[in-house]
Design goal:
The complex is a heterodimer.
Chain A (H helix, E strand, L loop, with lengths): L9 H63 L2 H9 L5 E10 L2 E10 L17 H86 L3
Antiparallel strand pairs in A: 1-2
Helix pairs in contact in A: 1-3
Chain B lengths: L1 H4 L10 H14 L6 E5 H4 L3 H5 L8 E5 L8 H14 L5
Classes of the chains: A mainly alpha, B mainly alpha.
C-alpha cells in the first residue's frame, strides 16, 4: 500500500476524494468504451471470417484457371501477354472514426471503366483459359479490397480494445483500491489526532484545576 | 502474375531476405504510396515479426492471400490472433 506516501491532512484527504471520483467516472467511461468496441469488433470479425473464406476460395479458383492457362500457353507467351497492363488502379484512403479509432476506408478507381478492358493482350495469340483466369481475378479483387479494409479495421480495433481493457483493469484493480485505502488511512489518522487532542485537553484541564484549587 | 493485368503493382520475390527488403522498401521509401500490400502466404512464412510491425499502423494494410498452392491457413490464424488479443481467449 502506498499509504506511507500521503500526508494525513484534510487538504490531501480532499484531493484524494476528488481523484477517486474522477477515477470512478473514468473507469465507467472506459468500460463503456470497451464494451462498445467489443460489440463492433465482433461484427467485424464475423464479416472478416466470411470474406476471408470467400476470397480464399475465389483466389484458389483463379489460380487454378491461371495454371491451366499456363499449361496451354508457353511461359514466354504468358509473360508477354501480361507484361503491360492496360488497366491501372488508384486507391484512395479515407479514415473513419470508430470510437476514436481511425480505421481506413478504401475506395478504388480504375482508369478504364469498361470491364472488358482488363485484358491487356490481343485474343489471337492467347488461350481462352487466360481470359477466364483474369475474369475470375477481377471479380475476386473487389472482395480482396473489402477484405483488406475489414482486416485492417479488425487489427486496429483489437489493439484499441487491448489498450482500453488494460486501462480499465488498471483503474479497477490498482488506482481505485489505492485511493480508497488512502482515504481510509487519512480519515482514521485525522480521527486519531482529534481523539489525542481531546484527551490532551482533558488532561490539561485536570492539571490546571488541580493546581488552582488543590482539586482532586 | 495475373494481378498485374488488373492494374496492381507486382513485386516478385524469391527469398525471405529479398521479401524483407522489398517490404521495407515499399513501406519506408514513400510513406503513403501503397496502402494495401497483398502478400502470398508462402512468401510471408517466417516474416511474421516483420508483418506484425505494421499491424497497429493505419497504413499499410498487409493482407495475406493464398498462393497458387492453396491456402496455408495463415490468414485464418491472423484472424484468430486478433480475436485472442482483443477478447483474451479464442472464441471462434
Amino acid at each position: 500500500m502506498a499509504t506511507a506516501v500521503v500526508t494525513p491532512t484534510r487538504m490531501v484527504l480532499n484531493q484524494q476524494k476528488k481523484r477517486l471520483k474522477t477515477a470512478r467516472k473514468g473507469h465507467k467511461l472506459m468500460k463503456d468504451k470497451c464494451d462498445e468496441l467489443m460489440r463492433q469488433f465482433m461484427d467485424i470479425v464475423r464479416l472478416n471470417k466470411e470474406l476471408r473464406i470467400k476470397v480464399e476460395q475465389g483466389l484458389t479458383a483463379a489460380f487454378a484457371s491461371l495454371t491451366v492457362a499456363s499449361a496451354i500457353m508457353s511461359p514466354e507467351m504468358l509473360e508477354q501477354a501480361l507484361m503491360y497492363p492496360r488497366q491501372s488502379v488508384e486507391l484512395q484512403v479515407k479514415y473513419k472514426n470508430i470510437m476514436s479509432v481511425n480505421v481506413p476506408q478504401y475506395t478504388f478507381t480504375t482508369k478504364n471503366n469498361d470491364p472488358s478492358e482488363i485484358y491487356p493482350y490481343g485474343f489471337a495469340m492467347t488461350s481462352g483459359e487466360l481470359d477466364d483466369a483474369l475474369d475470375k481475378m477481377a471479380r475476386v479483387f473487389e472482395d480482396m479490397l473489402e477484405l483488406a479494409q475489414v482486416e485492417k479495421t479488425m487489427q486496429l480495433l483489437a489493439e484499441e480494445i487491448e489498450k482500453t481493457r488494460r486501462r480499465v483493469n488498471a483503474l479497477e484493480h490498482v488506482m481505485i483500491p489505492e485511493l480508497e485505502g488512502n482515504i481510509k488511512y487519512i480519515s482514521m489518522k485525522l480521527e486519531e489526532n482529534d481523539n489525542a487532542t481531546k484527551v490532551r485537553l482533558l488532561k490539561v484541564k485536570e492539571m490546571v484545576l488541580e493546581k488552582a484549587h488543590d482539586f482532586k | 502474375m495475373g494481378f498485374k493485368a488488373l492494374g496492381l503493382d507486382v513485386f516478385p520475390v524469391s527469398t525471405a531476405a529479398e521479401t524483407k527488403d522489398t517490404l521495407r522498401h515499399l513501406t519506408a521509401a514513400s510513406e503513403n504510396e501503397y496502402a494495401i500490400i497483398y502478400m502470398e502466404e508462402t512468401v510471408a512464412l517466417g516474416l511474421e515479426a516483420e508483418i506484425d510491425k505494421y499491424k497497429d499502423k493505419p497504413t499499410p494494410a498487409i493482407i495475406l492471400i493464398p498462393g497458387p498452392e492453396g491456402s496455408l491457413g495463415m490468414g485464418q490464424a491472423a484472424l484468430k490472433a486478433a480475436v485472442e488479443r482483443a477478447v483474451g481467449s479464442d472464441i471462434l
